[in-house]
Amino acid sequence: MGLFSWFFPGPEDRVRTARKKMESRRWADARLEVLDLDHPEAMELQKACETELARMNLHEALSWAQAGDDARVMHHMELADTFHHGGLEDAFRDTRRELREIRRERDEAEQRRREAEEARALNADPFGVAGGPSWLDRTVPADFFDGTDDEAAARLSLVVEGYAQPMRATVGALGGTFARALLDLQDGRPDLAIQSLLELPDDAPVVRYERAQAAYMLGDPRAASRELREFAKLAGAHHAMGTHHTAIFLALCLAESGDPEDALRVLRAARATEPDLGGPLFAQLLEATGKLPEAETVLAGLIRKYPSDAGLYKLLARVRVAGGHRREAMAALESSLSIGHCTPGKCGYRPPDVAAMRSLAILYLEDGLEPARALELSKQVQELAEQPTWEDAYLLALSAKAQGRPDAPAIATALWESTPPNDPRQERLEKFLPSPA
Question: Could you tell me the CA-to-CA distances from 381 to 29, 330, 434 in Å, in that order?
Answer without folding.
Answer: 20, 17, 23
